Amino acid sequence: MVSTTIRFNFFLKGYHSQPSEKSCIALTFDDGPSEYTPEILELLKKHQVQAAFFCIGKQIEKYPEIFQQILEDGHIIGNHTFHHTRKIGFLSSEQIFREILACDEIVENKSGLKLKLFRPPFGIINPKTKRAIQRSGHLVMGWNVRPYDAITKSPEVIIKRITRKLKPGDVILLHDNQQQTASILEQLLVILEKKNLGTLRPDKLFGIHAYR
Length: 212
Ligand SMILES: [Zn+2]
Known about the structure:
By secondary structure, the protein is an alpha/beta fold. It has one domain: Glycoside hydrolase/deacetylase (TIM Barrel). The protein is about 40% helix and about 15% strand. Helix 4 packs parallel to helix 5.
């Protein structure tokens, strides 16, 4: 049985959205670091927004300086496995466990940080993944606003999907390995200001620690 949406409380407790008295939402970026991440970091800095980046281990290996920049800018890092394989649904619990550990290891080697937060690739949580996460002891951070920005080509459609029902406490999933993400983010930040919605770093929104 495979849960393809991130609403997997049936399997595992996760953090997806947080009714908030403050008018704030949280931004999360998956699948980086990539060549497109620096432009995103510039925008976030310009608007004084802090976010979470769920990094892929092999991408950290490829872009170590960008990884450092994410941390220097005050964002938090989460685990998104080492290879982010499309075949994750076919991996054994042991293999998934090793994928999670390998991502933890490269982050600790590069930064000294011990990751606490995990986001499963493609939002897939099956019983094997659940077992691996219970063994690794990570907290799962999901999302509740998913605009399919890595699949849809039209920035207008993506922005509409994000903003049409946006409310305080929402957690938005974007991808920092897409060329169009910076331009989507730039427009989104303007819309947030118009709607009087601020942003909170996800760990602060949920009142949890990002690291052990
Ligand atoms: Zn991903």
